[in-house]
Specification:
Elements lengths: L5 E4 L9 H10 L5 E6 L11 H7 L7 E6 L7 H7 L3 E4 L7 H10 L3 E6 L17 E5 L14 H15 L4 E5 L4 H10 L3 E4 L1 H4 L6 H9 L1
Parallel strand pairs: 1-8, 2-3, 3-4, 4-5, 5-6, 6-7, 7-8
Helix pairs in contact: 2-3, 5-6
Bound molecules: D-xylitol-5-phosphate and zinc ion (ZN).
Length: 219
């Protein structure tokens, strides 16, 4: 069943020189989750945030930390992010040889487990583990950078996942990440998504705009 929409600002678009304050600002502005994009310059061509930064940010918000790991191999880093204060840990099936084992590792650490599908990753990659997941994340851009254009072909995949989740009858979150703005947000929700990651669209205009930006994505 599609839940009321949750907005997850991606701090990739925040001011990295003031991350603690930025996390506080989006928390006060009505965000539901804090989305943390972890990149290793190997799985994706960019380098961002490690577990030490997540740990440092943890006291700055009471919201769940939605940690998106774009690293390979992924298993060796999962415990450090769990320890640092991640609430949901999402991994790409391509990031390790044993997706089911990785999901067990995440759940064994008491965290919510997510699986992320790149724009060209077949939906069948998630099908065998759907019942083990708390969240499915559909990438509507190729991972690595903020500010890219939404890939329309992902809408049909969101709709297919909505059906699969509803058929299973489990409360699995269906999240979308990349190029989400008020217009694409509406289409994602119509397709069945119930959680939206947004970097550019939330952080545009600075702290004074965050509440209105988040509200515009919800509307
Ligand atoms: C891309 C990241 C996204 C990205 C979204 O690899 O996973 O979370 O920051 O940024 P926008 O909203 O600017 O497309
Ligand atoms: Zn992300």
């Amino acid at each position: 069943m599609q839940k009321p929409v949750r907005i997850a600002p991606s701090i990739l678009s925040a001011d990295f020189a003031a991350l603690g304050r930025e996390v506080e600002a989006v928390t006060a502005a009505g965000a539901d989750w804090i989305h943390v994009d972890v990149m290793d310059n190997h799985f994706v061509p960019n380098l961002t945030i490690g577990p030490m930064v997540v740990k440092a940010l943890r006291p700055h918000s009471r919201l769940p930390f939605d940690v998106h790991l774009m690293v390979s191999p992924v298993d060796p880093l999962v415990p450090a992010f769990a320890e640092a204060g991640a609430d949901t840990i999402s991994v790409h099936p391509e990031a390790g040889p044993h997706l089911h084992r990785t999901l067990q590792l995440i759940k064994g650490l008491g965290k919510r487990a997510g699986c992320v599908l790149n724009p060209a990753t077949p939906l069948s990659a998630v099908e065998p583990v759907l019942g083990d997941l708390d969240l499915v994340l559909v990438m509507s851009v190729n991972p690595g950078f903020g500010g890219q254009a939404f890939i329309d072909s992902q809408l049909a995949r969101i709709a297919a996942l909505r059906k699969a989740i509803d058929a299973l009858g489990k409360p699995i979150d269906l999240e979308v990440d990349g190029g989400v703005n008020p217009e694409t947000a509406r289409r994602c929700r119509a397709a069945g998504a119930d959680a939206l990651v947004a970097g550019t669209a939330v952080f545009a205009g600075g702290p004074g705009k965050y509440a209105a930006n988040i509200e515009a994505l919800r509307a």
